[in-house]
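[Automated response] Your request has been received and processed.

Submitted sequence:
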Amino acid sequence: MASKSTDANVTPPAVQTPLKPEETELLRKRDEQSALESELAERELRATNLRAELGAFERRFLHLVGLRYAELDEYKAQLAERLAAEQPGNERAQKAATEARAGAGETKNGAGEKSDAELHVFKASPEMKRAYREVAKRIHPDLTSDRNDRTTRQQLMARANEAYERGDEATLTKILSEYESSPEAFQGEGAGAELVRVIRRISQVRGRLSEIEAESQALLRSDLYQLRLRVEEAAQHGRDMLTEMMAKTDEQIAEAKRRLSEGAKTL
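Generated structure:
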């Protein structure tokens, strides 16, 4: 008679331990983090590309036209100052000379040349020193042994050093605030601690997405971007707008030189 089979050698199915609420939430938040980080990478690329394109256009514009504008405004200032010197009692002429000189200085700076007023000696205020000390005490790279945290601190300290040199106290305060709420600043093990870090990272990413949007909109509204659009539109109609601007400015420079050489009495 055949023996009956038994379940003695059969391995019972594994019993899965139900996930804790914080573990379930952690999985959901990690998916959210992954999606946001992918979006951030794409937005960063588009914003960086826009800045690079505008930077290249600005350098080309300054090389072809900007320096000519600076030269023209310098001649205009000299003409205005000559007229003011010839008519010391003419308040209108004096004002025009002052405004022309200020305009020439602005154009010169915009073309890449610095005025004497910008060559100042750096001196930090007590408030700046206090803000920098707070940043250094809290986030200096040498204060941690964690490799990832150290990398983050090094990047933040580099930003802090630049902000200090610029005298930018607001950025120093922002850097400290960013680190205090960063994932790296939160210690602990387990799903609960990791959930806090993921939530903080999501908050960081959302904050950066908002910053990129504001930066991009500012660039799109800038005079430089609008000028670039006009140049591109002109090119579609077979015109080289920058070359036209160069030619017109050269004519104005020649006229200003002629008036200076002849001792012109009026602008």
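Summary generated for your ticket: The first helix runs from residue 21 to 86. Confidence is low (pLDDT under 50) at residues 114-120.
If you did not submit this request, please reply to this message.
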